[in-house]
């Protein structure tokens, strides 16, 4: 196999003109300074993602939320790890799904773990106080502050996160936050490649809050499974093994499914695909 | 006070800073700070299943002067009543306000009452272990509502914090406590109005012989899950004073009914207790025992 990404079936130069190499070599270092072997910044090792995780998907249904993320840890295009858990449980009933840099994922994991410990000091032995204390909307607000603070230091945590859980009133809560501190809510959310490939599929079923009421739990789970399959077909950084959490508002419970496999795949079409990768022999 | 002791008595070498224990295991600077709390006018707090009420007696330094603020709002769900050095209370309440804002900003949730009160308790405790400074000279009643319900905490300069169903701090607060101890079983199911009335009666018991509650010297504050922290002052407090049968202390009214009799007994108890306390400190040999130290008006303390 040819490992040079520039030989992986780019449209021909004669049609689209030569590739702008600056895009692939984009840098935050001033090009003038680079010529003089100086840089504007000290060496920064965390300013671009190294080991990464791909999309996180989530959708609201009539009684809660389904959220999923696969278990792959990629080193560039290399599938380095197949056992990365990217759905983090925070507190009693909040799930934070994280895509992007995996070392930054671990940093967030530590921050959220510290938060949980801090919270348990307050509540003491009081189970009710602990359950009432840290809800998904609080976790999301905190994450947003963390992400925006780090981007303001020009040292972002290179992630996009989806927070799923219940708010203070026990209502389903689903909101996004990324490395810029941008935060928004939607009944369907996806990070990374999923934002391009899965969101249109999810929105076919749930386009607004009103549609949430019509989607059953079984349908929501099936929909997420289908989207994970599509992502495995079309996202070269994805894996057919993933984790899925199902939250239900009525009993305020979280079911956590590990090692879910992509099912019913059909790869017969692959033989017919031409024009990508190495010239077919 | 320190110099006073040193010069006049030559007795106490253990109250120069807050880091020195006396041989009897006491830290005098902390006890003096607690004494400052007792000099301030009284504040009373009560909790029902739904509401927390603070009532307080305001003092004015002189006839033409304004009254010292006794209740400070921290956030929509939280407020404090103070007894002691008002400037110290201002510093603590500003800190609490910062904490409350920070909780909203960082977590999008109101500061929990216990977290609030323990945050200032930690500050106060630090002052009891450092030589350079002094303890805060103020006691606070912290009233608030959070996800776990209504709460009333008492904060002391020592950094100790306790939760109460009814509490009173400040001058002659023992009389209030006696009343609260007699009535506390009614508090959980009391209505908002009843709770305020209980509070005012408790506050009334702290009045000096010739004093009465009036709209100038009385502050009432209420908070509940559905009601933001509300302070009633001046003309707004009159509606609550109107609910009382009398605005004067039962001692001033003389023996009229059975209730009075009880009160009189309690006051005797209080006087006896205070006497006992004085005697105790006297026998321990190195505490301030002078009446000057105790007389509220002798000191230029705050209120």
Automatic annotation (TrEMBL), chain A:
<protein>
    <submittedName>
        <fullName>Unnamed protein product</fullName>
    </submittedName>
</protein>
From TrEMBL, chain B:
<comment type="similarity">
    <text>Belongs to the peptidase T1A family.</text>
</comment>
<keyword id="KW-0647">Proteasome</keyword>
<keyword id="KW-0539">Nucleus</keyword>
<dbReference type="GO" id="GO:0005737">
    <property type="term" value="C:cytoplasm"/>
</dbReference>
<feature type="compositionally biased region" description="Acidic residues">
    <location>
        <begin position="257"/>
        <end position="272"/>
    </location>
</feature>
<dbReference type="GO" id="GO:0005634">
    <property type="term" value="C:nucleus"/>
</dbReference>
<dbReference type="Pfam" id="PF00227">
    <property type="entry name" value="Proteasome"/>
</dbReference>
<feature type="compositionally biased region" description="Polar residues">
    <location>
        <begin position="284"/>
        <end position="293"/>
    </location>
</feature>
<dbReference type="InterPro" id="IPR035144">
    <property type="entry name" value="Proteasome_alpha1"/>
</dbReference>
<protein>
    <submittedName>
        <fullName>Unnamed protein product</fullName>
    </submittedName>
</protein>
<dbReference type="InterPro" id="IPR029055">
    <property type="entry name" value="Ntn_hydrolases_N"/>
</dbReference>
<feature type="region of interest" description="Disordered">
    <location>
        <begin position="249"/>
        <end position="303"/>
    </location>
</feature>
<dbReference type="InterPro" id="IPR050115">
    <property type="entry name" value="Proteasome_alpha"/>
</dbReference>
<dbReference type="InterPro" id="IPR001353">
    <property type="entry name" value="Proteasome_sua/b"/>
</dbReference>
<dbReference type="Pfam" id="PF10584">
    <property type="entry name" value="Proteasome_A_N"/>
</dbReference>
<comment type="function">
    <text>The proteasome degrades poly-ubiquitinated proteins in the cytoplasm and in the nucleus. It is essential for the regulated turnover of proteins and for the removal of misfolded proteins. The proteasome is a multicatalytic proteinase complex that is characterized by its ability to cleave peptides with Arg, Phe, Tyr, Leu, and Glu adjacent to the leaving group at neutral or slightly basic pH. It has an ATP-dependent proteolytic activity.</text>
</comment>
<dbReference type="GO" id="GO:0019773">
    <property type="term" value="C:proteasome core complex, alpha-subunit complex"/>
</dbReference>
<dbReference type="GO" id="GO:0010499">
    <property type="term" value="P:proteasomal ubiquitin-independent protein catabolic process"/>
</dbReference>
<dbReference type="GO" id="GO:0043161">
    <property type="term" value="P:proteasome-mediated ubiquitin-dependent protein catabolic process"/>
</dbReference>
<keyword id="KW-0963">Cytoplasm</keyword>
<feature type="compositionally biased region" description="Low complexity">
    <location>
        <begin position="273"/>
        <end position="283"/>
    </location>
</feature>
<dbReference type="InterPro" id="IPR000426">
    <property type="entry name" value="Proteasome_asu_N"/>
</dbReference>
């Amino acid at each position: 196999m040819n490992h040079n990404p520039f030989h992986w079936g780019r449209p021909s130069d004669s049609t689209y003109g030569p590739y702008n190499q600056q895009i692939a070599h984009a840098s935050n270092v001033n090009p003038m300074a680079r010529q003089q072997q100086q840089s504007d910044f000290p060496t920064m090792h965390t300013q671009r993602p190294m080991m990464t995780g791909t999309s996180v998907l989530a959708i609201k249904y009539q009684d809660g939320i389904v959220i999923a993320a696969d278990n792959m840890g990629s080193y560039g295009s290399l599938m380095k790890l197949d056992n990365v858990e990217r759905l983090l449980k925070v507190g009693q009933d909040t799930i934070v799904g994280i895509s992007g840099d995996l070392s930054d994922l671990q940093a967030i994991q530590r921050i959220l773990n510290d938060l949980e410990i801090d919270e348990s000091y307050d509540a003491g032995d009081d189970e009710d106080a602990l359950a009432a204390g840290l809800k998904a909307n609080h976790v999301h607000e905190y994450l947003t502050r963390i992400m925006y603070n780090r981007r303001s230091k020009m040292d972002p945590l290179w992630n996009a996160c989806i927070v799923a859980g219940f708010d203070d009133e026990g209502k389903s809560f689903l909101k996004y936050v990324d490395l810029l501190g941008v935060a928004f809510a939607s009944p369907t959310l996806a990070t990374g490649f999923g934002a391009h490939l899965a969101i249109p599929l999810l929105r076919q079923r749930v386009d607004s809050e009103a549609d949430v009421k019509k989607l059953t739990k079984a349908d929501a789970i099936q929909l997420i499974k289908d989207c994970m399959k599509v992502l495995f077909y079309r996202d070269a950084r994805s894996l057919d093994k993933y984790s899925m959490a199902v939250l239900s508002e009525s009993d305020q419970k979280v079911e956590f499914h590990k090692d879910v496999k992509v099912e019913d795949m059909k790869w017969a079409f692959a033989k017919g695909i031409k024009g990508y990768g190495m010239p077919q022999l | 006070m320190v110099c006073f002791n040193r010069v006049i008595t030559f007795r106490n070498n253990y109250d120069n800073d807050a880091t020195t224990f006396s041989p009897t295991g006491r830290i005098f600077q902390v006890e003096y700070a607690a004494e400052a709390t007792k000099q301030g006018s009284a504040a009373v707090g009560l909790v029902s299943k739904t509401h927390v009420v603070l009532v307080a007696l305001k003092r004015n330094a002189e006839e033409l002067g304004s009254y010292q603020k006794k209740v400070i709002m921290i956030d929509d769900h939280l407020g404090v009543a103070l007894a002691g050095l008002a400037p110290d209370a201002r510093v603590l309440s500003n800190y609490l306000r910062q904490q409350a804002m920070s909780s909203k900003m960082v977590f999008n949730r109101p500061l929990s009452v216990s977290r609030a009160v323990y945050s200032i308790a930690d500050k106060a405790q630090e002052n009891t272990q450092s030589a350079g400074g002094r303890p805060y000279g103020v006691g606070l009643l912290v009233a608030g509502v959070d996800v776990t319900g209504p709460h009333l905490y008492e904060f002391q300069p020592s950094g100790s914090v306790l939760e109460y169903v009814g509490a009173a701090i400040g001058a002659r607060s023992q009389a209030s406590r006696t009343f609260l101890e007699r009535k506390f079983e009614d508090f959980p199911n009391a209505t908002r109005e009843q709770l305020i009335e209980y509070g005012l009666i408790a506050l009334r018991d702290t009045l000096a012989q010739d004093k009465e509650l009036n709209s100038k010297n009385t502050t009432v504050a209420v908070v509940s899950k559905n009601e933001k922290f509300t302070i009633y002052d001046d003309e707004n407090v009159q509606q609550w004073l109107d609910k009382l049968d009398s605005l004067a202390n039962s001692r001033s009214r003389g023996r009229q009914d059975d209730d009075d009799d009880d009160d009189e007994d309690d006051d005797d108890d209080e006087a006896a207790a205070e006497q006992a306390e004085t005697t105790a400190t006297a026998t321990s040999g190195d505490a301030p025992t002078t009446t000057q130290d105790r007389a509220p008006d002798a000191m230029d303390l705050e209120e």
